[in-house]
Amino acid sequence: MEAAVYQTFVRPKHAGWKTTDWVTWLTEQHIAPSVMANEEGTCALCRAPTPTDAHGVHYTRCFNCQKQYASVLDGFVPICYSVHDGLEGMLWRVKNSPGYEWLRAPLASLLWHFLERHLSCMERAYGGPFDVFTTVPSHSETRGGRNHLPLLLQSVTALNDLWTEGALTKKHSNKAGERRRKISTDLFSASEDVAGKRILLLDDTFTSGGTLASAAYALKQAQASTVVALAFGRQLHSDWDEHRYLIEQLPDRSLDLQECAVHGAGLPWSWISNRHG
Ligand SMILES: [Zn+2]
Ligand SMILES: [Zn+2]
User: What family does the entry list (predicted)?
Assistant: First the structure.
């Protein structure tokens, strides 16, 4: 993939910005439209628009979630929708483009403020508090590559304290350019420590869903009781007919932390932070 196809970002001149300043900056970029509760015509699990039946009614789950992903993923919450000329570029930059490490700060700040408001929503929607917060490794151990999500989490101390690594190991690299739309049973292995645990699994983006579902598969094989995924972006594709109507709405939509995909009253955040404090 060519770096040149993605937009550039100008680092704000600042000293000692707080997480709220970074969320404001991210809002001003107009690239991170929030995923709202009850998005009409989208899959109840992966939140992408579903095809319609003969009567023009959207299916409540997409084919892949129905046939495969729902067996390993108990839930999924994307913070924003991601499109090629939007959040996708920022996530690509932070992972692949030298000199853009500073973009970890706005993304980690977004995650922190999202959890502050909506972790309780996720707990309520998916059966209670989480025991383990972990990430999907982006590199296999053999490649010696850096995993970018732990580095991102380090930019906000409170987040870094909440997450633990080592629950998942990537056993080999994805084939170049591969967009998995299926569960790969040998891509990850999970620590036996996850047995009986409720896992919140973070990835940067849900594109085809295959990577996240493969990670969830490994956790379930290791007897994790619940796996709920969380991602910054739910990727939409302009070349997919059923995604187009939603993509067309996104320019009018902003980053709005008042609501989430599973929004509702829940357990108080203070109760959660005490558990991990
Ligand atoms: Zn789906
Ligand atoms: Zn919420």
Answer: Belongs to the ComF/GntX family.
What's the pLDDT score for residue 157? 93
| For the CA of 61, the nearest ligand | 1
Cβ within 8 Å of residue 137, ≥6 positions away: 147, 168, 169, 170, 188
Ion ligand 2, residues whose Cβ is below 5 A away: 118, 121, 260, 263
DSSP string, 7-34: PP-PPPP-SS--HHHHHHHHHHTT--PB
Distant-in-sequence, close-in-space partners of 174: CB < 8 Å, separation ≥ 6: 180, 187, 211
In the prediction, which pLDDT does 223 show?
98
For residue 42, give the ligand nearest its CA. Answer: 1
Residue 4 forms part of a structural domain:
no
9 within a domain of the structure (yes/no): no
5 belongs to a structural domain: no
Per-residue confidence band for 2, with pLDDT thresholds at 50, 70 and 90:
very low
> Which bound ligand lies closest to the C-alpha atom of 261?
2
Q: Quick check: 24 pLDDT over 90?
A: yes
Range of the domain at 232: 20-276
> What is the CA 241 to chain-centroid distance, rounded?
23
State the total domains in the chain.
Answer: 1
* Predicted pLDDT at 276: 47
Going from the Cα of 53 to the center of ligand 2, the distance in angstroms, rounded, reads 30
Q: Is residue 96 part of a domain?
A: yes
SS3 state at 198: strand
